[in-house]
Amino acid sequence: MRKVLALPHLLENLTLTKFLTHFLSSAALIVVFLLLWLNTDYLSTLMPPKSPSTEVNCDVQQAPNHCVIETDIGPIEVFAHSEIISLEPFTITLKTADPRFSSANIRFEGLEDYMGINQFKFAQDDINTWHAKGSIPICTTKSKTWKVIISLYNDNNYSSYWFKMKTR
Q: Beta strand pairing status for 54-55 and 157-167?
């Protein structure tokens, strides 16, 4: 008669030494994977640094869809290529005179309620220009007020600036 379940047969040949070897090998692989993941920018997307964000006056929804944010290392220009509308793809551009930034993110949070994780990483086009593409969800109301957070990373330094933005 043929055995339907092969698991008991496999367990018969498993010794404590083999079990510990397989267990420790699996645990080592998981640790290596986690260490590699911690050294990427993907983790910072889920857990932005907990430092204060500075409120700035920026209205990228009104023509010419542009503002200047004064930062610790100089002004940064923020451009929306058009009005930002829910569910429609958009592009945001950052321009800076100082090339010291290593990366930058933009995050859209609902000001009064939770609207999910809407964070986009800026890609560097040249030494002073960064672009981020994304879209934001629609709300059941006719308009939505967002808290827009721009995070700037430079080696171990982090700075964050935010402004309110209303979409239709």
A: parallel
Q: Write out pLDDT tens, residues 104-125.
A: 899 999 888 888 889 999 998 8
For 35-77, the pLDDT digits (tens) are 777 666 555 555 555 567 889 998 888 888 889 998 877 899 9
Question: From CA 136, how far away is CA 118, in angstroms rounded?
Answer: 7
Q: What is the spatial distance between Cα 85 and Cα 67, in angstroms, rounded to a whole number?
A: 18
**Any idea which fold 54-167 has?**
Immunoglobulin-like (2.60.40)
> Which residue, among 58, 9, 49, 17, has the nearest Cα to 151 in the 3D structure?
49
Q: What is the DSSP letter of 127?
A: T
Structural domain spans, the chain: 7-39, 54-167
Three-point CA angle 152, 154, 158, nearest 5°: 50
CB atoms < 10 A from the CB of 163, how many?
A: 19
| Threshold 0.85, pTM exceeds | no
